[in-house]
Amino acid sequence: MSKYKTSLVLEGGGMRGAYTAGALTWLLDHEIEFDCCYGISTGAVHMASFLMKSRHFLYELPVKKITDPRIVGIRPLLRCGRIVDYDYLFDVILTEEEHYDISSLKDCKKGQIGLYSLSQGKTFYRSTREISFKQLEAATSLPILGTIVKEDGEEYLDGGITEMIPIQKAVDDCCERHLIITTKPGDYERKPAKPFIVWLMKRSYPQCDNISKDYAVRHLNYKKQIDLIKDLQSKKEAVYIYPSRHSKVTRLGGSFEDLDALFKLGYDDMEARKEEILSVFSPHE
Asked: Residues 125, 138: contact at Cβ < 8 Å?
C-alpha cells in the first residue's frame, strides 16, 4: 500500500460517467485501493459500485441500463413531468432488476458522498456507512431536471450544485496523494449559468435562498476546483485522469455504442498512464 494517505476523487457528469466506470474497472483489475473515496452525482453511484468491487454494476448501469428510454427523454417528461425519472432508475432498474444493494457498504469507512441540503443551503458529505439508498438517489438528482428527495424531514439534491469535483474535501481530510477522475476533456471551461436558469432556480426552490446564489457562481467554483487540481499536480501530489478525446455522449444522451466506447476510453486512458498511476498508488497487498 502507498505510504501516503490516498484519495479517489470522482466528478459526476450524467451519462458521461461511463468514462469513470471504465477507469474504475481498470482500478479493480489492478487491485488498487484507497484510504478515502469521494463521489459527486453519478460519480457517487460509480464509487459505490467500485467499493462493492462489482465489475458487473460498473458496466451494466452506465453503459446498458442507462439507455432505457423510460429514464431520460420524452417518456419520463410525459409520465412524471421531468426529463429524468430518477424514481424509475432507482426503484425499478437498480432495485428490482439489478438488486443494487448498498447495505454491504455499512462497514465501509472509505466512501463519502456529496449531498446538497435545501434546509442548510449547502453541500455536505455523508459516509457510505450512513447513507440510505434514497439519499444515494438524491446525490444524483439534478436541480430542475430531477425531483427533490425527501427523507426524515430533510430535502436533498445533487451535491454538484457547489462541489463538482470533490477535491477540496479530500484535501480537508488530510489526504496526501489523489487520483482524480473527471468526465470532461482537459480543455473544458465551464461557462456562467444563464440568468434565466438562475432565476428558475430561485423560483423552483423558494425554501432555499442559497441555491440560486450557488448556481450563479458555479463556474467560479469549478475553476477553483480545477486550479487546486493543477496545483496538486505541479507538486506531484495528484494524478489527474480525464478523457483523452471528445465523445458524442452528453450529460443526458448517448447510444449504447457511444457509451461502450466511452467506457473503453476510460479503461484505455488508465492503461496508458499505468506507470504513473502505479508509481503513486500501489496494488492492495
From this structure: no
Q: What's the chain's length in residues?
A: 285
pLDDT digits (tens, 9 = 90+) for 99-117: 999 998 998 889 999 999 9
Burial (CB count <10 Å: 0-12, 13-18, 19+), residue 69: exposed
DSSP conformational letter for 159? G
CB 201 within 8 A of CB 212: yes
Q: Are strands 36-39 and 111-117 parallel, antiparallel or unpaired?
A: parallel
Look up residue 129 and give its amino acid: R
Strand 177-181 relative to strand 6-10: parallel, antiparallel, unpaired? parallel
> Are the beta carbons of 204 and 144 closer than 8 angstroms?
yes
CA 164/CA 152 separation, integer angstroms: 26
According to the model, what pLDDT value does residue 1 have? Answer: 55
Please write down the HEC assignment for all residues of 263-281.
HHHHHHHHHHCHHHHHHHC
At 7 the three-state DSSP class reads strand
Task: Report the C-alpha gap between 204 and 201 in whole angstroms.
Answer: 5
C-alpha distance across the termini of the chain, in Å: 6
CA distances from 13 to 39, 42, 80, 245 (A): 11, 7, 23, 16
